[in-house]
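Colleagues,

For the teaching module next term, I've prepared a clean inverse folding example: a structure given as tokens, and then the sequence designed for it. I'd like students to try predicting residues themselves before seeing the answer, so please don't circulate the second half yet.
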């Protein structure tokens, strides 16, 4: 029974062609193509059974780095003249991440069945988000898929670096705070009881600071420590559950924006992300209303999301992007002015890219300032707490020394 074979080959003029042929064997396909003057480069049998995505949801997590590598390699193959299906077939075999490899295989099957690449990718939001899908759709429609894929890789890479900067800023103070709490807990639970026993045996009267430290130690060493643990754990769980509600997310996001230094960092990250995303979408041919909707959904902050949705509403009513942005407290006047200039000169995408680059640098500076401010503050906090405990423990010893000296 004849099988269906997919082929890719070159004409004598060097043009790359591809198609399908029904034949008994692979050799028959090669012979048929050569009779037509086509030099076959790839001939493979088309599988009748669809690709099954085994273990979806249980596989390895897809990291941004995996998507970047896939995007760059796929763009290079497409630019080299390799058909989309053939490129996807290659990537489904050589992609390191197992989950992404399986998803690419399913995308390949859907494209073979007649879907566009964007439609096939849209079925897998775990790997390809709205931004990715819309850019691919614009690239396919405009015949510039290779350049769009390269632009996508650059965008994801810069977004990943921005996220790492913010996470890096939080690691150092978190580690210092954890160590500080751990040191104080060890002193209160294990060291203070030893001193308390000595003071009891000595029969000396305890000053108020020492009584406070010993009482706190007794509380933490007993049932009080367990109660405190459950209060802290319960508060964290309650806060996370509250954040999952729409109203809770909006309230907490507003609160985060008002925190000194931290709020400024969140604002700058939001401006950089909005500018980079919208600029990339517009330069790739995505309509501005669709671009604004994607920006709103990927804002990461409900306050910023609300502002961008209001911008989309006003733009759909005939206003410019800069007009509604000027009314918000999120976007600085400089950003609004630069966007206004970009709109009036017809170079909005380029202006947004400049804003994104500027605020990437601003995030760097804010992260450095945050580290500079937090380091001495944490050291002062730790020194004050431990210093108070040490003084409280030594006060009875000083008092005892004075008593002994007086008796002599």
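(Answer key — instructors only)
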């Amino acid at each position: 029974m004849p099988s269906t074979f997919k082929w890719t080959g070159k004409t004598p003029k060097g043009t790359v062609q591809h198609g399908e042929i029904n034949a008994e064997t692979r050799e028959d396909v090669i012979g048929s193509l050569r009779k037509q003057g086509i030099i076959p480069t790839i001939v493979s049998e088309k599988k009748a059974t669809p690709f099954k995505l085994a273990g979806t949801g249980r596989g390895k997590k897809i990291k941004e780095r995996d998507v970047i590598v896939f995007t760059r390699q796929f763009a290079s193959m497409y630019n080299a003249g390799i058909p989309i299906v053939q490129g996807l077939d290659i990537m489904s075999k050589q992609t390191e991440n197992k989950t992404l490899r399986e998803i690419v295989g399913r995308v390949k099957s859907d494209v073979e069945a007649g879907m566009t690449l964007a439609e096939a990718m849209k079925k897998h939001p775990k790997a390809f988000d709205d931004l990715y899908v819309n850019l691919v759709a614009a690239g396919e429609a405009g015949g510039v898929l290779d350049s769009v894929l390269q632009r996508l890789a650059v965008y994801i890479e810069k977004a990943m670096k921005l996220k790492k900067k913010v996470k890096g800023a939080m690691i150092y103070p978190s580690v210092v705070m954890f160590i500080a709490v751990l040191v104080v807990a060890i002193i209160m639970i294990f060291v203070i009881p030893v001193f308390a026993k000595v003071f009891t045996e000595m029969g000396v009267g305890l000053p108020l600071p020492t009584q406070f430290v010993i009482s706190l130690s007794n509380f933490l060493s007993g049932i009080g420590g367990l109660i405190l643990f459950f209060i802290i754990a319960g508060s964290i769980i309650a806060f996370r559950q509250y954040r999952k509600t729409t109203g809770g997310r909006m309230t907490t996001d507003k609160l985060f924006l008002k925190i000194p230094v931290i709020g400024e960092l969140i604002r700058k990250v939001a401006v950089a992300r909005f500018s980079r995303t919208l600029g990339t979408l517009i330069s790739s041919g995505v309509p501005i209303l669709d671009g604004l909707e994607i920006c709103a959904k990927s804002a990461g902050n409900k306050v910023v999301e609300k502002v961008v949705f209001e911008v989309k509403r006003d733009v759909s009513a005939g206003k410019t992007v800069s007009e509604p942005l000027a009314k918000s407290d999120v976007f600085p006047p400089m950003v609004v002015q630069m966007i206004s200039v970009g709109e009036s000169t017809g170079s909005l995408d380029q202006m947004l890219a400049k804003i994104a680059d500027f605020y990437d640098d601003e995030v760097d500076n804010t992260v450095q300032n945050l580290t500079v401010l937090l380091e001495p503050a944490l050291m002062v906090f730790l020194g004050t707490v431990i210093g108070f405990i040490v003084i409280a423990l030594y006060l009875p010893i000083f008092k005892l020394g004075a008593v002994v000296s007086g008796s002599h």
